[in-house]
Design goal:
It comes from Sphingomonas bisphenolicum. The chain is of the alpha+beta class and 392 residues long. It is 45% helix and 13% strand.
Length: 392
């Protein structure tokens, strides 16, 4: 496992940092430090196009599809410098990190030509249609159905927690296409245009005041027959491949964001005297150790050669970072004290650390609850007997 970077890599790091910091000090300085995913949506879409214009949008993709064929080290470096520069999160993260790699790996040549150039250029924003009201972390329990009518799939059902669906152009959806099928069998992976009468999107207001998530209803919604990825009934395999991409190089950028949050907690503790409390100092030290361990774990995970499969490191990473960041949010509020519970701005306009606390309450839920992650670790990672299904 490679834990350092070559001199050439460090030159690339400087190139990334210079460009990103220049953008955040220049034309796009108005979006620097924006933490809410729904903040300044049109400017964020302009930022996607700016990244694409300078070939920074999807640097790990092949050159022919808008990328740079960047090495793994270079992708890690860009993700880290992106977060270090205070650049807001990507509104097309789902397209760049999930939909795109899935199409590259499992899609046909025609599908690549149809979708990849527009994703890379920031012209097509994707969202994800996996979770349902009764199938959150348990993807195999989805009930949304699709049937083939002529040259179109017709979809009926409901998805929930569809991040940024209200500003997206396409959604990939796991549907059940075989009547009477259960579990992972009979699922199909479809790509659907959102702007159509059969799709209704309703926002969900979060505890921190943001409205990133949505409920998405499908009523005879349609997509072309050739919009499925893989074969009919092959949706589970495609979805598992996609979830492996979710544990990709962006995890190192995510950790740089964690680094920024921890540094802000340390600065606040020094400023208000909380750092004089030995228990606070101990918790800060524990957070620092945990962050470093996560970095080494992520590098180990990324060193695997086959990134289309979820290995043991990927199975443990989600529960590791989610639990760590939930504790970090609690540490932030303990450092701030009662003053952290009062906002100086409009309703639900919180500073970074109170917003960290509020959002981190969801970290151990979305993307697979901690309990589901423990089941995955036990059953798929350690090969232990499956948990009884349907028990009271």
């Amino acid at each position: 496992m490679k834990l350092g970077f070559s001199p050439a890599d460090e030159l690339f790091r400087q190139e990334c940092a210079d460009w990103l910091n220049g953008q955040m000090a220049g034309e796009f300085r108005d979006i620097k430090g924006v933490t809410k995913l729904t903040g300044s949506p049109e400017r964020r879409k302009e930022w996607e196009r700016q990244l694409a214009a300078h070939r920074w949008s999807c640097i790990g993709w092949p050159v022919e599809w808008g990328g740079r064929d960047a090495t793994l080290a270079q992708q890690v470096i860009f993700a880290e410098e992106y977060a270090r520069a205070g650049v807001p999160g990507r509104v097309n993260h789902i397209g760049i990190e999930l939909a795109g790699p899935t199409i590259l790996t499992f899609g046909t040549q025609e599908q690549k030509q149809r979708f990849l150039p527009d994703i890379a250029a920031g012209r097509t924003i994707f969202c994800q249609g996996f979770s349902e009201p009764n199938a959150g972390s348990d993807l195999a329990s989805v009930r949304t159905k699709a049937r083939l009518e002529g040259d179109e799939w017709v979809v009926n059902g409901q998805k929930i927690w569809t991040s940024l669906a209200h500003i997206s152009d396409w959604i990939f959806v796991i549907t059940r296409t075989r009547e009477g099928s259960q579990g992972p069998k009979g699922l199909t992976f479809l790509m659907m245009p959102i702007d159509q009468p059969g799709i209704d999107i309703r926002g969900i207001r979060q505890i921190n005041g943001d409205a990133e998530f949505n409920e998405t209803f499908f009523t005879d919604a349609r997509c072309p027959a050739d919009s499925l990825i893989g074969a009919e009934g092959d949706g589970w395999r495609i979805a598992m491949g996609l979830l492996a991409f979710e544990r990709g190089v962006s995890t190192l950028g995510q950790q740089m964001g964690f680094r920024n949050e921890l540094d802000e907690i340390i600065a606040a503790a020094k400023a208000n005297g909380a750092a004089n409390d030995p228990l606070i100092r101990q918790r800060i030290a524990k957070a620092e150790i945990g962050l470093r361990l996560m970095r080494y774990g992520a590098l180990r995970m990324l060193s695997q050669t086959d990134h289309s499969k979820i290995d043991g490191a990927a199975l443990t990473y989600k529960i590791q970072w989610a639990s760590w960041r939930r504790n970090l949010g609690e540490l932030a509020m303990d450092v701030l004290g009662q003053g952290g519970e009062i906002g100086d701005q409009a309703d639900y306009e919180w500073d970074t650390l109170p917003n960290l606390f509020l959002f981190s309450r969801s970290d151990t839920i979305y993307g697979g609850t901690n309990q589901i992650q423990r089941n995955l670790i036990a059953e798929r990672g350690l090969g232990l007997p499956r948990e009884p299904r349907g028990a009271a």
